[in-house]
Amino acid sequence: MPHLTTSGASLWYDQSGSGPDIIWLPGGDQRGSEMRWQVEGFPDFRNTTMDPRGVGETEALEGPPWSILDMARDCAELIEARCSPPVVAAGLSMGSLIVQELAINWPHLVRLAIPMGTFAVSEGFSREWMEAEIRYRRTRGDLPFDFAVTHYAAFMYPPEVLDDPELWEKLRTVTEAAYGERDGAMLDAQWQACCEFDTTARLPLCEVPIHVIGFGLDMQAPPSLGRKCAGLAANGHYHHLDGLSHLSLCGHRHEVVNATIRSIIEDHG
Known about the structure:
Blueprint: E1 3-5, E2 9-16, E3 21-25, H1 36-41, E4 46-50, E5 59-60, H2 68-82, E6 87-92, H3 94-105, E7 110-116, H4 124-140, H5 145-156, H6 159-162, H7 165-180, H8 184-196, E8 210-215, H9 223-232, E9 236-241, H10 254-267
Parallel strand pairs: 3-4, 3-6, 6-7, 7-8, 8-9
Antiparallel strand pairs: 1-2, 2-4, 2-5
Helix pairs in contact: 2-3, 4-8, 5-7
């Protein structure tokens, strides 16, 4: 996987396949490789993933702090350099915020935006939880490996996973990769960018089709926030998936999520 030097980062990305372009943006604390279930589900497309600032092999040229707009600019420059725009842009959690900024600020690069587990502005429990995590990291430091893995798992996967020892043993590797040995300062930087994110005044002006996917059991980004995001967008649509949680697209019910994404794409030709 090569690096691309953008105006703000040495960006680590991967590209595979051939066909129309889809770029997949991972959630906070995740590398682009964690979107592998989606890449594998779209072999008839050219799939591009990247490590956002603060995780993996990407190295920011300055900062933190960064904004979601900074990360979206990295992504826009990657699309311009390595894709044939306009592309389908799909992202989870922090990646979904990057997708929104792409659609708003670089509409000529995005023909269809699919943010998942998203919000237009963090509020309620979602915001309080992130702010509490940031304060803890700043005052107490990093979490022990075993505690971090189990603590974040409850926010990532639904009871169906946690109540199935075999499935949990399989998927705990995803939680371990994201949180087990996470650099607290980098987690802090990504989550602070999410707390400061706000597109409520700009979504009504964005004409790019925005199809929000919400998960019924999502505690990190409750589905009501996704509905609000879709309702604000000038060309917004909401799709609700019951029984799924924030990270169900990573090894739990990825086939359900992929089928929904494919249906959205096909509906747009």
